[in-house]
Amino acid sequence: TEVFSKTIVEIARKEPKILAITAAMADGTGLIDFAKEFPERFFDVGIAEEHAVTLAAGLAKKGFRPVVAIYSTFLQRAYDQIIHDVCLQELPVIFMLDRAGLVGPDGPTHHGVFDLSYLRHIPNLTIMAPKDGNELQDMFFTALQLNGPVAIRYPKRDGLKLIEGEGPKKLLYGRGEIIQQGQAVALIAVGTMVETAVHAGRRLQKNGIDCTVVNARFVKPLDEELLLRLATSHQNIITIEENVIAGGFGSAVAEFLAAKGLTGVNLKFLGLPDQFITHGPTELLLRNCGLDVEGVCRAVRELNLPIVGVKARV
Predict the structure, then answer these.
(1) CA 98 to chain centre
(2) DSSP code of 77?
(3) In Å, how far from its chain's centre is CA 35?
(4) Contacts of 19 (CB under 8 A, 6+ apart)
(5) If you count Cβ atoms within 10 Å of the first and of the last residue's Cβ in the chain, which end, N or C, has fewer?
(6) DSSP structural state of residue 39
(7) How far is residue 8's CA from residue 257's CA, in Å, rounded to a whole number?
């Protein structure tokens, strides 16, 4: 939230067409500083997410670049407006989905664990998830270069730090990032789970299991070229996401590989189960769902891969 707050204010100083909209979440989404500096470009519609999205559509139609900052769980209320008012019209509205993933003590009403599933099947919509603060900055900057609707989801956690002095850059559209190269198994992670996958990959590497670790970056469109390379060079692929498994990123990967006839790949999905997650410390909830470093390592060990003598890679 803090990274987004800083980023939108800095870019809005140079881009006068940027407007910010929220639904009674100005403080929670980090738009307070934006509202103070650009009061005439800030709109808080109250607890009316549907209206926030339709307002953004109208403003985009008139040539503005509206940014709708809403908690992931509450954007569900505006599902119809996202489809008919924004995506059907291919309007350049940017949805900033705060509180994506598990939110600890806020509990089941606030866990933002369904957004990848309820958004990724909507035509014309680009979906991104950053691994850290600088990538969040880059994704917002990239979204402004696209002439269509974009959703960027990020968590309620301190993990997405911003390295000062590194200005935003445009990402290659629809392209992921290989962080660690291996052969035995490919760990393809989304957003918050990238750091977890990196730590798990290093631990497994030290224990003789050669892992490729991938930062997906884009949930839609998928990096099809990279997925094809991984599927032809790895017998095992594990997708890791802080979203429900049903209809999420892993499902998208499975659908793509099946459409390409690559059914011989052993796919495993790590994500949230088909149940409402209770309150609790986020670290505990992630551990209970198998989405901590040990959970990822355990999922890899269950594949019974051969152990080889390899040196750890960075």
Answers:
(1) 10
(2) G
(3) 25
(4) 41, 42, 43, 59, 64, 65, 66, 67
(5) C
(6) G
(7) 37
Average pLDDT over residues 290-296: 97
Residue 310 above 60 pLDDT? no
- Give yes or no for a cis peptide into 306 (omega within 30° of 0): no
Phi first, then psi: give them for residue 303, nearest 5 degrees. Answer: -75, -10
Question: In the sheet that 177-180 helps form, which strands lie side by side, from edge to edge?
Answer: 177-180, 211-215, 185-189, 236-244, 266-272
The closest alpha carbon to 292, from 196, 156, 184, 171, belongs to 196
215 neighbors 131 (Cβ within 8 angstroms):
yes
Structure confidence by residue, pLDDT tens digits, 226-267: 999 999 999 999 999 999 999 999 999 999 999 999 988 999
Strand boundaries in 13-117, DSSP class E: 18-22, 42-44, 65-71, 94-98
Q: Is the pTM of this model over 0.85?
A: yes
Task: Output the CA torsion sign for 79, 85, 86, 88.
Answer: positive
For 261, the 3-state DSSP assignment is: coil
**Residue 159, token pair as written in the block:** 């993990």
Cβ-Cβ contacts under 8 Å for 101 (sequence gap 6 or more): 72, 111, 112, 113, 153, 155, 156, 157, 191, 192, 242, 243
Q: Is 13 exposed, middle or buried (0-12, 13-18, 19+ CB in 10 A)?
A: exposed
